[in-house]
Amino acid sequence: MLEALAASLTLVHRQPFVVRGTGFKAHERVVIREADVRVVVHTTALGRFVVSLGSVDRCTGGRVVAVGAAGDQAVLRLPPTACAPP
Question: What's the distance, CA 74 to chain centroid?
């Protein structure tokens, strides 16, 4: 028997900021939040989605949270990268 995968998020691109979600329920409504951005998507038949969130400040890092209607949740933490001082 196949076990269900835990919901997870993966960074696809930093600019534009694109995130891939996997392990969610099929055709599930998922709310994605990153700072002041809130996006609602529906997963594919395989429980996946790809979403562009615009841009993110790479110097401060941050996190993305995705919560599915069935209660599954995934968090992607973005560590800050080295930036030149102002």
Answer: 7
Q: What residue type is assigned to position 39 of the chain?
A: V
Looking at the predicted structure, is the pLDDT value of residue 1 above 50?
no
Handedness of CA 19, 24, 30, 34 (dihedral sign): negative
CA 48 remoteness from chain centre: 11
Write down the pTM of the prediction: 0.84
Other beta carbons within 10 angstroms of residue 58's beta carbon come to 16
Tokens of 55: 């841009």
Whether 34 contacts 74, CB under 8 Å: no
Q: How far apart are CA 24 and CA 45, in angstroms?
A: 10
